[in-house]
Amino acid sequence: MELKPVKITVSNGSSSGMYILLSDDEIRYTKNGDTQPPNRSYKIQIGVEAIFNNKRCTGKRLFTIPKGTSINKAVGSLLGKREDMKLLLKANGTLKTEKKIIKVINTKDRRFKSVYEAWISGKAINKRPATVKNYQGCYSSTLCKFDNKIIDNITEDDIQNLVNDSINKGKKPKTINIIKVTLKQILDLNDIRINWKKIILPKIEPQEKFNGSDDEARLIANTLLNYKHPVARGVFAFLLSGRRIGEVMLLKHEDINYGTNEFTLRAENTKTNTTVKFTLTPLLINAIKMQKTTNGRIFDLKPITIHYHFKKAMLSIGKTDMVMHDLRSMVAVIALRNGADIYSVSKMLSHKKLATTEAHYLSNSVERAKEAQNIVTDCFNNYIDTEVLPDEFTALKAIYPTATDNKIQLIIDMMKDNKLLS
After folding, report:
1. Given strand 4-7, what is the order of strands in its sheet?
2. How far is CA 404 from CA 388, 408, 412, 421, in A?
3. How many CA atoms lie within 13 A of 291 on its CB side?
4. Are 352 and 272 in contact (CB under 8 A)?
5. Continuous segment of H or E residues that includes residue 380
6. Which residues contact 15 (CB under 8 A, 6 or more apart)?
7. How far is CA 214 from CA 211, 219, 221, 310, 330, in A?
């Protein structure tokens, strides 16, 4: 049976670029003019086009539809696929995807290059692309110097020399510390023991939290929420809810649930590798509705373009020292400063551990502990017998520093009995 592509027709007009593969005697239409699918499983071909490097590019893919699926349901299920195809074509000029080749491990080859390639191939299977990219960057800039070295011969001095070389080249402490993060995994996996206490790494200074006033935060937020570019403005709205830029740029229309007023961040797109849901506020709903996209990714801009618009917005109010990630710090600090509890802020930032939020935003933990202690003391004072003044106890403790608290209390009671104390 020879099949040929037949343009799909549906009443809502959403089938642009879609063709159903049918034989001549299977071409039928409903009374409404919609394409009638055959009484079997069938295939739909989607064709898309886009401009890549100032050239028109085209591509197509086939999708198998189960028997009994109506044409409207089939078309609806493929709308997101069509948008993804357009984005891929626009970004790469082709729909072909590069196949991941998992390197065959040769346990007898102990050269660092071979060991690294086997290790990074495994990481590509179960780690986020951004994480793998960090490992690859560390290797290409630093660890590749070990390529021809047998891993059993790598010493603490060799590693320290790599670190020192990176310091001399002016690399940031956080970048240099990735050397240990990456190298330790490779060596541990291959039973190479290194005394990491001997390796001296530059100290990573804690990330500065937002220390501006509430009025300054309002000015920043107002500038971003009224920015002229609608796509950038929509992204800024989500960033001001505590989201990371990577999460926002990967957000799709399918992740939005208007029925429950929630949006979902998929595990593969979050830093913590967990799926999380957040409330869809009126501000965020408006940010979505101002976009031209209706399927696939909501915000049709590259991250580098969003960075450009952010810098432009900040320059307009004289802010030259802020990066987009600082907005997370700003919303957290403002929330805590205005009465939000640390647990709620931790959930807003989607931190996996409460300790992470505490470490970043409760640097004055001693003062907070003292404040809490004072509140408890004030609360309990109504129920504590305070016949003996603290000054008497303190004075006697100074005279008899080695005496126990019980003995000091006994002296006070004896003095009271002899009316030496009023």
Report:
1. 4-7, 18-22, 42-52, 55-65
2. 16, 6, 13, 20
3. 24
4. yes
5. helix 365-380
6. 7, 8, 9, 35, 75
7. 9, 9, 10, 20, 9
- State the residue for tokens 């991941």: 100
Phi/psi for 5 (5° steps) reads: -70, 130
Instruction: Quote the tokens at residue 302.
Output: 């590259």
pLDDT in tens, the chain (422 residues): 689 999 999 988 889 999 999 999 999 999 888 999 999 999 999 999 988 888 899 999 999 999 999 998 999 889 888 888 888 888 788 888 655 555 555 667 899 999 999 899 888 777 777 788 889 999 999 999 999 999 999 999 999 999 999 999 998 888 899 999 999 999 998 899 999 999 999 987 766 678 889 999 999 999 999 999 999 999 999 999 999 998 899 999 989 999 899 999 888 788 877 888 999 999 999 999 999 888 889 999 888 899 999 999 999 999 988 888 889 889 888 888 888 888 788 888 878 777 777 777 665 545 555 555 555 555 555 444 444 345 566 766 677 777 777 777 777 777 766 655 55
Those residues with Cβ within 8 angstroms of residue 143's Cβ, 6 or more apart along the chain or in another chain: 112, 116, 162, 179, 182, 183
* End-to-end CA gap in the chain: 113
DSSP 65-131: E-TT--HHHHHHHHHHHHHHHHHHHHHHSSS--PPP-PPPP-TT--BHHHHHHHHHHHHHHHS-HHH
- List, in sequence order, the alpha helices (H) in 291-340: 303-315, 326-337
CA distance 343 to 361: 12
Q: Which residues contact 369 (CB under 8 A, 6 or more apart)?
A: none
Q: Which two tokens stand for residue 251?
A: 């957000």
> How many DSSP H helices and E strands does the chain contain?
16, 9
CA–CA distance, 77 with 40 (Å, rounded to integer): 18
Look-up of token digits 């990330």: 207
Q: Residues near 200 by Cβ (< 8 Å), separated by ≥ 6?
A: 160, 163
- What is the Cα–Cα distance from 348 to 342, expressed in whole angstroms? 10
Phi, psi of 35 (to 5 degrees): -60, 135
HSE-CB for 412 with a 13 A CA cutoff: 20
